Amino acid sequence: IGAAKLVVVVAIFLLTFYVISQVFEIKMDTNLGHIFARSALDAAARSTKPPRYKCGISKACPEKHFAFKMASGAANVVGPKICVEDNVLMSGVKNNVGRGINVALVNGKTGEPLDTKFFDMWGGDVAPFIEFLKSIQDGTIVLMGTYDDGATKLNEEARKLIAELGSTSITNLGFRDNWVFCGGKGIKTKSPFEQHIKNNKDTNKYEGWPEVVEMEGCIPQKQD
Asked: Residue 209 forms beta bridges with which residues?
């Protein structure tokens, strides 16, 4: 009888130990699994969410450069957008864009915004645009984007003044072309920041208008 009791006690002890060890192992496995799963999710979130740079551009600008991003208008529905150093200077949301050529002026040394205007090149007069272009001070960054139509009223004088800011496409800008440009007053070379899509009924994304043109980059700060 004593031996039988001893066997039962040992059996109960072993069973209890087994059950306890199983419970603890399950809990341990669950906790470890949760920790690993969470760390994996965190790592995935970090890898899929790239760092945000000024104006949402794809990479950071070096020192002594200003980040910019801009887009032309979409047909005659969505206005253009111009952003410099994380500051949206012109957009439909700000309600300061219009048909024609939209212009933002920025201080070339500080990156501070100076002025924003739009000039109707379909139903308006080119004279005020020419006067505005002539009044721009040396060292000013000039950003331009079309909306709807930016070319019909442009004359040779206006095109020449824009070419002097560093544009190469302005001579070929036609009816309802989409165009974005970033140059500067007093620039000695042609600007690398320009995108131009011709209005072509065979390739237009929208009926009567080409697709939006977008551009981003880093503008060198003006040095003394």
From this structure: 206
pLDDT at 219 over 60: yes
Helix (H, G, I), strand (E, B) or coil at 198: coil
CA–chain centroid gap for 32, Å, is 41
Instruction: Give the residue from 107, 101, 118 showing the smallest Cα distance to 85.
Output: 107
Rounded to the nearest 10°, the torsion over CA 198, 199, 202, 204 is: 100
Classified as helix, coil or strand, 3 is helix
Residues in contact with 77: Cβ distance below 8 Å, sequence separation at least 6, in sequence order? none
Global pTM value: 0.76
- Give CA–CA dist 49/47, Å, rounded: 6
The full DSSP string for 83-103 is EETTEEEE-TTTT---SEEEE
Check whether 170 has a pLDDT greater than 50: yes
Residue 77's SS3 state is: coil
